[in-house]
Amino acid sequence: MMAGARNLLWLIPLLLLLGWPLYGAGVRWFLAPPPWDEGGAGRSEEQTQRFILDGVRFYQDEAGVRRLRIDTPSLRTDPQSDKLLLAAIDGALFREEGDDLLFTAARGYYDPSGEMLYLEGDVRLNEAERLRLTTPALSYHGRQRRVSSRAGVEIFAEELTVSGRNLDYDLESGDYILAGNVHFVVR
């Protein structure tokens, strides 16, 4: 009959088949290709989403019409959100009719998801040498084309000084709404 080592060779494939549940997971892990990274092979999420740019001029256009310009010596991304952090900001808000509004601030950030610009630290807004506005903090709402401040505002014109706590300024209509302990000084 079947006697000898040569006739026991058929037991090897049988043992491999029956033992697959024990060693199969390790073999599959070893032979699997590396995971594919759509953002770039070998880079972590933190490395792909953070950057710093020096000497930046940033524009916001809407339907081919320029709405906002920001000049900053340093632009970097916020590690926890999509915000762009800005330092020593100079910029302009463009209007279709009327003079452009020029602004400066010590720091701020731009939120591209809501098209919002937040400025802080000695914010100054100038309108063609006729009007100068100063405030500690100011926000620009790009979708509504509105500027607002809740940190106290002083407005200087040629023969008029106005101060108040809250400001809402509609860039399209040119209407100012100043509220909260408003003071007028006419020279």
TrEMBL record:
Signal peptide: none annotated. Pfam families: LptC. The keyword Ribonucleoprotein does not apply. Gene3D superfamilies: Lipopolysaccharide (LPS) transport protein A like domain (2.60.450.10). The keyword Cell cycle does not apply. Keywords: Cell inner membrane, Cell membrane, Membrane, Transmembrane, Transmembrane helix. It comes from the Bacteria. InterPro entries: LipoPS_assembly_LptC-rel (IPR010664), LPS_export_LptC (IPR052363), LptC (IPR026265). GO terms for molecular function: glycolipid transfer activity; lipopolysaccharide transmembrane transporter activity. GO terms for cellular component: outer membrane-bounded periplasmic space; plasma membrane. This is LPS export ABC transporter periplasmic protein LptC. It comes from Desulfurivibrio alkaliphilus.
